[in-house]
Each structure stands twice: as C-alpha cells, then as structure tokens.
C-alpha cells in the first residue's frame, strides 16, 4: 500500500509540474512584447552583409527600389518551399525596381552554398554570422519576410512560408 501511495504522489507531482509548464508556455506566448517589434511605416534598420559571391549589400543602397527581405535557414522546410517561388519572382521583378535579399540566420558557408546551388538561386543570399541583423529585425520564427518600400520604410512583416502568388502580390506592393 505504501508503494502505491508513493507512486500516486509522484504521478501527481509530475502532472502538476507539466500543467504549470503548459500554463507558463501559454502565458508567455500570448503576452509577447509586441512593442519591441518593428513598427510598420518605420525606417528599416540598415545593415551591411556580404553575399555568397563576396559582394557587399547595404540595405540603404537599395533606396528607390522595393526590397523583399527574407530571413531563412537551410533546415527550415517552409523556407525551402518558398525559395523556388522567390527565384521566379526575382527574375520577373528585378528589372522593375524590386529586389530580393535573403538573409540566412548564421549557418556555415558550406551549408548555405550547398542550398543555393541545389536550388539554383541567383538573388543575393547573405549569412548573418553574428546574428546582428536578425536581432535588429527581431526575427522569430522562420521564415520571416519584410516588405520595404522605395523610401526604406517597412510596410509589412509576413511570418511563414509564401506561395508564388503571394510573393507576386507582395512584389507588386513594393514596386516603385
């Protein structure tokens, strides 16, 4: 009988701890600090990153053009899903004043280069090694895409994978 009581007590303690963890997770998820997120209409944080070909890209150099700024990871399946669509739309819009900049969230050159080669990506792909850009844009979770207009203002933040039709719609929104 004593063994059964101990087992019941242990199960009860574990259940209470799991319940407390669940309540805490729900509380922190629903009370996220949205004040720290980038405000729509505000200036996009500037950055300088080097692409896989060794070219520097400074966001402010793209003034006068729309920029679809995408944060992604090679391990992220939704990120991988949208890359071919981004490639197609990059070719359709790059001569219309809309650019795509893809920022990897700090993986190795080898992993990123392999991914870029496998998907035949031609738009600028950069690695945020120190994750300064990711922090500046408060990126979480992946993928996250920011739409930046020709004045350098953030007009939208999209979380999650995009279809080709959605990418096209977003490119139209930021076309100068």
| Overall pLDDT | 88
Strand order, sheet with most strands: 5-4-3-6-7
Our estimate of the beta-strand percent is 15-25%
Low-confidence stretches: none
Main sheet record: 5 strands, mixed
Helix-residue proportion: 40-55%
Helical segment count: 5
**What is the overall shape?**
elongated
- Supply Rg: 21 Å
Give helix and strand order, one letter per element, not per position: HEEEHEHEHEEH
Describe what is shown at a glance:
The protein has 176 residues and is of the alpha/beta class. The protein has helices at residues 2-30, 77-93, 109-118, 132-136, 164-174, and strands at 48-50, 56-58, 66-72, 98-104, 125-127, 144-148, 154-159.
